[in-house]
Amino acid sequence: MTDLYIDGTWVSPSDGAPDRVVLNPADGSELARVSEASGTDVEVAVAAARRAFDAGPWRATTARERGELLRRVADLLVRDRAELGRIESLDTGKTLNEGGIDIDDVTAVFRYYAGIADGHAGRVVDTGDAGVMSRVVYEPVGVCALIAPWNYPLLQMSWKVAPALAAGNTMVIKPSEVTPMSTIAFVRLLAEAGVPAGVVNLVLGDGPNVGAAMVSHPGVDMVSFTGGLATGQRIMAAAATGVKKIALELGGKNPNIVFADADFDTAVDYALAAAFVHSGQVCSAGARLIVEDAIHDEFVAELARRAKAIRLGNGLDPDAECGPLVSEAHRAKVEGYIAGAIDEGARLVAGGKRPDEAALRDGFFLRPTIFADCTRDMTIVREEVFGPVVTVERFRTEAEAVELGNDTEYGLAGAVWTSDGSVAQRVAGALRHGTIWINDYHPYLPQAEWGGFGKSGIGRELGPTGLDEYREAKHIYHNINPAPMRWFGHGADEAGVN
Ligand code: NAD
Known about the structure:
This protein has helices at residues 39-54, 63-79, 81-92, 96-116, 153-166, 181-193, 207-216, 229-241, 264-276, 293-308, 328-343, 379-382, 398-406, 421-430, 463-468, 491-495; strands spanning 4-6, 9-11, 20-23, 30-34, 122-125, 132-140, 143-147, 170-174, 200-202, 222-226, 245-249, 255-258, 288-292, 347-350, 369-372, 389-395, 413-417, 435-438, 457-458, 471-479.
């Protein structure tokens, strides 16, 4: 099979490694088989990216030309939206609706970076000296290793590929081994749009072998990674040896704070979406509800009532509201957290088990789960579960709400619900998370930076900062009228030394 794209050609792996079977999480059936890279393939891919960066015509492209290339990619994404959305749904288990929205978001990211690719060439610095011209310019970093997770395979990859291309880098990219299919289709689109050979190289494979080989390769200048905290720590350590630039988008444990004066029905509705979109397999999932005492019991009761009515199903089924988890192993991990929460004294008020329907038996489904009477010291409240599980804590004062919301090692996102604009602004200002929603949950914009405080990561994706991650700043200082300074050794003339 020819699933690796290296130096502009689809190739087979060099060492005949066994194919990986990609499963459909909705029924456990075989979706596809793909061939994975060996260490040698990573070598060849990095060498191709290196050549394309150091000596290829790509280096001579203008920012405007690269912007036009990104625009062509966006147009092809629009053309293939239905097919790509379907692939994403089949591979990850998310609903067809969610898959289509992902592709719209990928398209928006390409259009955004197309628009700003040539918008910021650098700046002139006032030196205070008419004889000196000084300017700061931006250059691409070089060869980038871009590694993505399985929950939003193409979306997370696009947040890296679009700005990396706009800035003029070359790259080796690797999707998660669990969900490679949309990235394979995407690379075909990049080639069709005219991305030159060697500029984007695709390798498939797992983290410990293929991903680690990318990160430690001396020919790689920068690593951008989205995934779990433990993997991010490993990548940071490995990148340290080569003093590579890194960008890390890691996990989250995101507080969703509801004050008693919030619109009750809207807050409940959004709390469900915050926690259960894509079965909670979202880095910014509102998995930690923090509700004011006065409405707590009523809120939990309504939340449970609605959660019990959520329709699970195959993502292709138009009636399905929630798909399965991505794999058997991941569901087992989430079930472990549920069992642990019960042991620690959390009160299960919805879900906590697999669905009863026979039609869902072979898929990796889990009922949307709600735990009440949770406290901040419980494992289920502290660790990222990454599944359809929401915990509820209660608070009495604004200060307590903020204190609870900040009591996490992560700092990715959070929300505050209130009809009092002053409270909203104070709480939003006090929360130490990279994104805060007020009376909303989950929307993000390509124009606005995304990323985390604390252990949620390093750097930002999206927005102008998301482009800067892929650029080096260079200061060019031009002495327009050079003349001898006579600092050193001019005594030789006076003393007649020869
Ligand atoms: P993961 O860390 O297991 O894997 C992510 C990617 O890293 C995969 O491609 C994997 O093959 C690769 N990888 C694994 N070990 C590696 C190593 N030693 N060296 C190099 N690459 C390696 O994460 P996952 O389970 O695929 O994704 C879920 C995690 O991603 C969650 O923690 C979630 O919060 C996080 N995430 C964060 C964001 C964000 O924007 N902050 C977005 C999406 C997902």
